[in-house]
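Quick question, first post here. What does this chain look like in 3D?
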Amino acid sequence: MSRVIRSCVLGLLLGGCGGGGGGDDGGAVDAPWGSDALGTIVEPGDPGPSDVQIVVRTDTARVPISPLIYGINVGANIATDNPLVQRSGGNRLTAYNWENNASNAGTDYCNQNDGALGAPGTPPGNAYRGILDDARTRGTAAILTLPIIDVVAADHDDLGDGGQGPPSCVGDVRNSGTNYLTTRFATNVAKKGSAFATSPDLNDDTVYQDEAVDFVRRNWGDVRVLFSLDNEPDLWSSTHVRLHPSPLTYAELVERTIRFAAAAKDAWPQAETLGFVSYGFAGYMNLQGAPDAQGRPFIPFFLDQLAAAEQSAGKRLVDYLDLHWYPEARGEGVRISDVDSAQGQAARLQAPRSLWDPTYSEDSWIVNDVLHEPIALIPGLKAHIAAHYPGTKLSFTEWNFGGGNHISGALATADVLGVFGREQVEAATIWLLRSSQRERFTLAGLRVFTSYDGAGSTFGDTSVLATTSDVVRLTAYASDEGLGARQVIVLVNKSAQPVTAGVQIAAPRTIGALRAYVLDGDAPTIDAVADVSPTATNAFLVSLPASSVTVLDAF
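> Answer (accepted):
Ran it through. Tokens below.
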């Protein structure tokens, strides 16, 4: 799962110190991206007395928002939740055989080979097909996982129900004898070369990952596809102990990453790749105690090695620094993903600040025992990228703040997605910790940005400045589209009391009214409420229910 980094403590852990946001503006940095084309700005008037003051400026801190941050792994209702990217990932994909769809989830499920991703006879790439077909239909994107470990499952021990439901727990592969790696698994090879088969050879005991990439290219070449280089390799020796019992080393992971990334790029040069897909903070620091760490923080080392590999190869091999983030913040001494008490909910609502805020110290072992100061995760990571491998994008392909069936989960989810857009994270996919029925509020938090009106209306494509006078009670995110033509504002009221927000919007037009939509604790639905009329030019008083997200659509 996960643990973190930070901007200036990185001298000890990750080497270096970075800038980043904080204060009232939530870390926004002034950037003129498109602002010169806005024209004359209509300055807002005074909205009147309010509990919290919100200032939105379309001419300040303009940065593009990647649509790939609004993603999910599995479990969304596509028609309702409208994710803009889906990922085929998780521990089961580490030993996934794309040729015959056998897989092994390691200690997550019995250490067995089975048909959870497709029974014998299902078409190649069964774990990818649904996501790719949906991406083609809706014009979205797909993230697929390529195993970079030495072997992948060769057989389906549980023939069960053809992969339509959970397999039976029929037995650990180790029960097959000491030579199970040769009798139950196929060799996993990065590069076959150019002689790719139209249909893979199921009888050669070898699986080629560049052939998998070519298979996807030939059949879904019109889809934006990203390839994740395995899943949480820093935990292989515990999760996939039958396949990789020894702790992973720095040298090994870098070598595997470069080898498989180069093969993928050769097969499909336009496809993007993600690495190292770390599970969390201890992985970020030293690959969970790698034998060759030698006191060196891993992320700067990894980025340096990728930069050198680009010089040797003459092209970029890994496009995204990809991490997983499951907060370690605690309420009542219990991690927020595991607690729904009042204190746990309160901690959950503030936890997104650890992604960016250098003034906020959460209660976690990361802060208390390791950093001894705030985390400010994203600014720290961006500083490393700038110092060690400029141009690398940042992604979080697994994350969840808990509270999936409670309004606090929706508020945290919406808050995190606002941060991701403002801080220019390039891709992110939620991992549902429970069934979709028990993550209804998490998915509602996603819809705040992907379909707040129930008809597919999304947050805008450009983040702009949104300041709040009280970041503890209320966070604010704003977007612009069409160079001032449309603004969408998201207000997250973390208070258990109603709040009146005074909202001022500096835009290149006079705004007549705001359409309003509210998500609160009554149900995981986003409901239209009465339009908000101005109290002065481009100034509004907005009533926010207790513990709620309000979406304002300026028209």
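The chain has one domain: 10-25+67-453.
The radius of gyration is 24 Å.
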